[in-house]
Amino acid sequence: PSASRLLRKLGLLHFKIKKSKIAIKCLEKAVAVNKQDTISRVYLGDYYLKRNELERAGEYYLEILRLSTRYNDRAFDIGEKLLRAGLRNLALSIFSKVMVQSKKQNVAREKIVEICLSNGELDFPKELLEQAIRENPSNYDMVFKAGLIHLESGDWEKALANFNTVDANVRGHLDAKFEIAKIYFKNRKVLKADDYLNQILRLEPNHEAAIALRREI
């Protein structure tokens, strides 16, 4: 009765004969008797994913991530689904666990930031970016993204500081220059905005967004 592998196999056999309720009971028994049974938890997590029971699936995958790093890539997708479903805390717990145990933390962090920004989550990626900048102040891609998050949060002063840092250290960074121009224009500093638009148009004469903003000035 305490052999989780046998309980798991019994559960999988019940899946094959379309007796899902019994199968789930077998798998739940397997994980109850063996706290290290990763594979049974994967079957349970995937079962609830297919049924769109995202909270239960997420809880199982959080347990899986505590036991193994083999499922980190799958965790990104599950975390994104949880975010979209409004299960923010569970999603962020999964992302945090992936971050802690990832061998390539910078790559994992960048991927998590992108997922969060694509789904309207600002506070968590802001923390991740600030940490990344502290660790590597010359990572100007992260500095620029931090500026975008500050801008989205309504803190244009911090955003401007980030964009200015990028502009000062990355030659010809048109996106940073354009964000600076927009901030100056919004704050009625027309001459400064015009100066940055001129810089952009010297580098890229057909920059449509800069041309459109220039017309407004």
Structure explained in plain terms:
There is one protein chain. The protein is mainly α and 217 residues long. It has 13 helices and no strands.
- Rounded mean pLDDT is 93
Question: Share of helix among residues?
Answer: over 70%
User: What is the rounded Rg?
Assistant: 24 Å
Strand content: under 5%
**Extended strand count:** 0
Short characterization:
This protein is mainly α. The protein is 79% helix and 0% strand.
Question: What are its keywords?
Answer:
217 residues; mainly alpha; 79% helix; 0% strand; elongated
Secondary structure topology:
Elements lengths: L3 H13 L3 H14 L4 H13 L3 H14 L4 H13 L3 H14 L3 H14 L4 H13 L4 H14 L2 H14 L4 H13 L3 H14 L4 H9 L1
